[in-house]
Amino acid sequence: MSRPHVLVAEDDRVVSLLIARSLEGVGAQITTVYDGVEAFEVGLTTDFNLVLLDQVMPGLLGVEVLQRWIDDGRIMPVIMVSALTAEEDIVRCLELGAVDFIRKPFSVRELLARVKVHLRAQGFEPEI
Length: 128
What we know:
Number of strands: 5
Distance between the termini: 16 Å
Strand content: 15-25%
Largest sheet: 5 strands, parallel
Helix content: 40-55%
Order of helices and strands: EHEHEHEHEH
Shape: globular
Structural class: alpha/beta
Number of helices: 5
């Protein structure tokens, strides 16, 4: 089976690099973007097996990106990643269609465990 393709949309370049390197370690192919507009545009033209989408980014908020993808018929598994911890923010993202929500700061171990769960559900067997 081919490698899973994951979009990492995160404006903090240090966090983005940490996520990307961790995901490459489990065999994923990574595309990285740093703002909401870029995330939206690449999501329109590329099929991803999973998206890690920061909620607060320049250009468009993560929830706005998710809503626009849905409006355009682009359905991809999205894990929201955010320092926002209000229950209404989390519930809004999940009700809109995100498959998971990870609060910042997060442990890389937890992030990888959640990513593996979602990739296995699609038939991928991430490397350990």
